Amino acid sequence: MKTKLFILSLLFVLCFNCKKTEKITIVETANTAENYLKPNTEDQFLGGIKMIPITTPKGEFKVWTKRVGNNPTMKVLLLHGGPGMTHEIYECFDGYFPQENIEYYYYDQLGSYYSDQPKDLSLWDLDRFVEEVEQVRVALGLNKDNFYLYGQSWGGILGMQYALKYQDNLKGLIISNMVASIPDYQKYSDQVLAPKLDPEVLKEIMSYEDKEDYTNQRYLDLIVENYYTKHVIRMPVKDWPEPINRGFKHLNPDVYVTMQGPSEFGIKGNATLKNWDVKDRLKEIKTPTLTIGATHDTMDPEHMKWISTEVQNGRFLLCPNGSHLSQFDDQKVFFKGLISFIKDVDSGAF
Fold first, then answer.
1. What's the Rg (C-alpha) of the chain?
2. Domain 44-347's class?
3. How far apart are CA 312 and CA 284, in angstroms?
4. Catalytic residue (one of 115, 153, 176, 263)
5. Which of 55, 105, 167, 323 has most Cβ atoms within 10 angstroms of its Cβ?
6. What backbone torsions phi and psi does residue 28 show, to the nearest 5 degrees?
7. Which of 85, 213, 245, 231 is nearest to 158 (CA)?
8. Are strands 103-108 and 59-68 parallel, antiparallel or unpaired?
9. Any bridge partners for residue 54, and if so which?
């Protein structure tokens, strides 16, 4: 149970302008069995799975991807959180994207469970991950005419950083449940969320924080039961969806602790992301951008709304009943807004 809760607790850082006939043709083509997975490729044998070679400063490795669906103009690459989490927390997308004819790609970043997991800690570097995403994009044949990049939590950091360097390759960007500044995130956690806890619970949590006793079972129980069920996924732990539990079980703590740090109440210690901040650079992003926030998130929803006004072409979606994993605890609002954005950009209505 201790191991399970430790892994669980690591989460937080953790065509209206188209011609009518053209649009109908795309929809009908995407719906045919022959085109759902492209014939005459390895997809026929691997169900859309592709291991992509990645070149790094420490050699070549392979990362796992899986394509679902086929649409020439709407292709979404999913960047999971963590760092060191897996694609499994997005399996609920299967209930929404296929029926909307949206092609999407599950992807385990280097170090995550289904991909290679080298032990060299120097690989867990933001800029290197950006180059990895670019290599994945090229290998999957994604481009400015079809490529939507979705990033949640740590994936949102990676998505923003990618857009600041490679936005000319993007058709659309989605930043989900992530602010543009780790110091601002820490401030919100300390000054807004922490005081909402029962004073005695907060006092006990901070006693473990002060001692840096981050793996203590009591500390983990307090965090999960009093903080995560309010701000990460608003469900009792016993009701958490199976893909979440499976994803947490597969989390790589080496990646997580290196970049996020050992604390479950913020980003502390020598975490490499501790001082990350791109607030002053958001105005450089011209790609159509959707930011998704939730009322009960670990991240400040007002900050995420602000991001949508800083980028050149932004839209904000609020999940009023959601938290950090609003794809689960405010699912209908989340997917309605996400799908509308993708289709509005695709049709030219955005």
1. 20
2. alpha beta
3. 7
4. 153
5. 323
6. -65, -40
7. 85
8. antiparallel
9. 61
Interatomic CA distance for residues 159 and 66, integer angstroms = 19
pLDDT at 265: 80
CA 309/CA 292 separation, integer angstroms = 13
> Residue 268 is encoded by which pair of tokens?
């502390």
pLDDT tens-digit series, residues 284-342 = 999 999 999 999 999 999 999 999 999 999 999 999 999 999 999 999 999 999 999 99
297, 300, 329, 330: the catalytic one is: 297
Among candidate residues 324, 326, 329, 330, the one labeled active-site is 324
Encode 220-232: b = buried (16+ Cβ within 10 Å), e = exposed: bebbbebbbbebb
pLDDT tens-digit map of 67-82: 999 999 999 999 999 9
Res 185 pLDDT > 50: yes
How far apart CA 88 and CA 110 sit, in angstroms, is: 15
Asked whether 294 and 330 are in contact (CB, 8 A), the reply is: yes
CB 96 within 8 A of CB 37: no
Q: Both tokens of residue 257?
A: 């602790």
- The residue among 256, 243, 203 whose CA lies nearest residue 81 is 256
Residue 157, pLDDT score: 98
Residue 223 one-letter amino acid: I
Residue 174, CB-side half-sphere exposure with 13 Å CA sphere: 26
Report the alpha-carbon distance of residue 167 to residue 154 in Å, rounded: 18
Say if residue 14's pLDDT is above 80: no
**324 catalytic, yes or no?**
yes
Q: Where are the domains of the chain?
A: 44-347
Active site residue 181: no
Confidence of residue 30 (pLDDT cuts 50, 70, 90): very low
